[in-house]
Task: inverse folding
């Protein structure tokens, strides 16, 4: 029997049981082989947007995906609902644009949650505050976001005035792949359209009553920018459940991690323990109460997730985090010479 010829291709969209594949010279609909399906154990074993795969082009129509090449990064969440399973939002992305807006959407707690999701994946976060044309001079949301960003870049963006677009593009050089994350109605697809220079994705005004918006974009899809680089547009996600290990929290709450060094107990949870430096900082106002509450909420949620996860998943999450952590340590070492 002759060997099946496969070529490398990238998954640009995933539908119910089909994918869209970008080959070097063409785009094709594809599905996984029967063997692939048989050997897959979990959702996360199936192709996700951004995956590099080996595929064969058999007939004139559908291509067949034989395997997924090792992922350099995975952005995951827990699937919605009560099942404890990982859902991959995007694979092989270099950065995640966390998008919020100068209107009803802005919420620091939600930003922290998304930052945890991004940090867990080892991907670089970039925060975009869209609709800057709606902000007035007294608006301090930019400063508030910068304060919790831990050094991640924060930009004011407007699809109307074009503010911030040079900054966005500067992060997408050298064929980098970025993904958009954020609530419905913050303007993700409008930003993408402006980057593409044409109306590819449908956009929709938000309801004035609650500014929540309907979900205009309903599936994830990757687009190639004329300037090089790739962007994945996503449906709005407002309530996102984490698929992470609690060891990611000190990376998001660096202020709390720093305070914790002065807690009496090494394993202090900063709730009711005696001589807790975090609780003390709450008392003096050094640490805002909302931030502490956000931290405790995520801490409890991740502890709950850990109890519900099966041991293999738990080990995988932990391993991934360790790997990413040692990678970033290597980078730091290299930077320090
Ligand atoms: N004033 C103002 N409005 C904007 C800006 N960017 C987007 N909008 C408007 O915000 C609304 C929502 O934009 P979309 O791009 O559809 O939002 P989305 O984030 O893609 O929403 P989903 O696809 O539902 O997740 C549209 O009416 C846009 O015209 C901006 O910079 N300023
Ligand atoms: Mg959209
Ligand atoms: Zn403490």
Result:
């Amino acid at each position: 029997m002759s060997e099946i010829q496969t070529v490398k291709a990238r998954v640009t969209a995933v539908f119910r049981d089909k994918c869209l594949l970008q080959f070097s010279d063409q785009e094709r609909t594809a599905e996984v082989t029967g063997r692939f399906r048989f050997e897959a154990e979990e959702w996360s074993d199936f192709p996700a947007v951004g995956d590099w795969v080996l595929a064969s082009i058999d007939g004139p129509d559908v291509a067949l995906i034989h395997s997924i090449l090792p992922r350099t990064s995975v952005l995951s969440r827990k699937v919605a609902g009560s099942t404890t399973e990982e859902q991959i939002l995007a694979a092989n992305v270099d950065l995640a644009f966390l998008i919020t807006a100068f209107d009803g959407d802005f919420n620091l707690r939600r930003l922290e949650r998304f930052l945890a999701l991004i940090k867990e994946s080892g991907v670089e976060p970039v925060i975009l505050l869209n609709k800057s044309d709606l902000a007035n001079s007294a608006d301090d949301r930019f400063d508030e976001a910068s304060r919790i960003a831990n050094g991640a870049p924060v930009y004011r963006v407007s699809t109307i005035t074009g503010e911030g677009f040079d900054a966005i593009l500067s992060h997408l050089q050298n064929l980098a792949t970025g993904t958009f994350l954020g609530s419905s109605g913050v303007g993700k697809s409008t930003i993408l359209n402006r980057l593409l220079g044409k109306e590819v994705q449908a956009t929709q005004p938000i309801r004035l009553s609650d500014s929540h918006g309907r979900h205009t974009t309903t599936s994830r899809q990757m687009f190639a920018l004329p300037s090089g680089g790739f962007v994945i547009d996503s449906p709005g996600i407002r309530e996102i459940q984490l698929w992470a290990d609690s060891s990611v929290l000190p990376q998001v709450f660096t202020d709390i991690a720093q305070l914790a060094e002065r807690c009496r107990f090494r394993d202090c949870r900063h709730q009711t323990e005696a001589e807790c430096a975090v609780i003390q900082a709450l008392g003096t106002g050094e640490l805002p109460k909302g931030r502490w509450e956000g931290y405790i909420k995520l801490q409890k949620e991740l502890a709950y997730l850990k109890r519900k996860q099966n041991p293999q998943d738990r080990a995988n999450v932990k391993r991934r985090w360790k790997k990413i952590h040692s990678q970033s340590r290597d980078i730091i070492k290299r930077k320090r010479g």
Confidence is low (pLDDT under 50) at residues 207-213. The first strand starts at residue 7 and ends at 14.
